[in-house]
Amino acid sequence: MDKSIKKVILLGSGALKIGQAGEFDYSGSQALKALKEEGIETILINPNIATIQTSEGVADTVYFLPITPFFVEKVIKKEKPDGILLAFGGQTALNCGTELYESGVLDKYDVKVLGTSVETIMVTEDRDLFVKKLNEIDAKTPISQAVETMDEAFRAANEIGFPVMVRSAYTLGGMGSGICDNEADFKELCESAFSFSKQILVEESLKGWKEIEFEVIRDKNDHCFTVVPMENFDPLGIHTGESIVVAPIITLTDEQIKLLEDVASRVVRHIGIVGECNIQYGFNTETNDYRIIEINARLSRSSALASKASGYPLAFVATKLALGYTLDQIGEMGTPHSAYKAPELDYMIVKIPRWDLTKFAGVSREIGSSMKSVGEIMSIGSSFEEIIQKGLRMIGQGMHGFV
User: Fold this and answer.
1) Is 290 helix (H, G, I), strand (E, B) or coil?
2) Angle between the 23-37 and 301-310 helix axes, to the nearest 10 degrees?
3) DSSP code for 342
4) CA 77 from chain center: how many Å?
5) Between helices 150-160 and 183-196, what is the axis angle to 10°?
6) Are 52 and 58 in contact (CB under 8 A)?
7) Contact 248/228 with Cβ under 8 angstroms?
8) I need a surface site. Which of 77, 172, 314, 330 has the fewest CB within 10 A?
9) What digits encode the pLDDT tens for the residues 286-325?
10) What's the pTM?
């Protein structure tokens, strides 16, 4: 472990709204617990009073301030921390940390980014860098063009050919995204996407392909594995937060899962993740063709699900890795408490989202590539029928399962 680190700032996910989910509260609390165990002083910045991590005794000092570069710099100036953790507050914390790095604030106060480096975070966030980096190892990504004006967008769409997928870069919960079949829809969607972000992505539509997700963990000695492989009930084109998710994967063959796991390990090693990351694939079961849709170099909604499903405390382990431990040093080797290998599941879990659209009159009730769900449940059982039946009863919409 890096002994020079005595005081660490952790960025939370900010006020709760759709896209800044309570799952980040889980990962932040786990991280604070791991730091405390090492005797490190913890400073938390999170304006949300309704979270576990802001409860008394979890962090040593809590600042109820917005997570913006302006306020975070003020706290850094006052507290003089040795390190900062960016991966535990979702997209909000990542964006803020990247801005602090680029503007030279972190250098100025000599604050070290713990875990995955900011350069790696930028590779996973900036589409052009991402595609170039993955092309170096022949990992397939969707044919995609990042554009910043309407003219560029139309050029890209005509080159790729309709239908195309439009997405905003650097946004939460898939805002401003969708699939279009013609120029009129495309123009409308691009205008909406540009209102959320200065850069939008125009890419080939993989509608109807399976969506597969892996949580991958890697330490500085390059030991790396998949914790829980998960698959989405809905095909690609539906936001993960809107989709029923089943773990472990049940509709792919062992060879297909192995193929995707090998790609995941190669990618994580190549871009240099230290700690935890989430990889999302589009997969065509008939041709075994795949595309890497995105990589999140942070703990996400899916990592909270994977932790709870498998009992493997991803956020806790990722924090220890950020402090310089290796996986064989966390927990006792050879026992179920060791972090060195993935847990084996002899059961299945399902996550089902919950919507509350009755409160919003006139809102479209169709699910798509942007997120509208307000919560979710997880059910555990020994067969798919059992978990889906339990899940539908738990969702609280007055359903008795498949009736």
Assistant:
1) strand
2) 70
3) P
4) 29
5) 130
6) yes
7) yes
8) 77
9) 999 999 988 888 888 788 888 888 889 999 999 999 999 9
10) 0.84
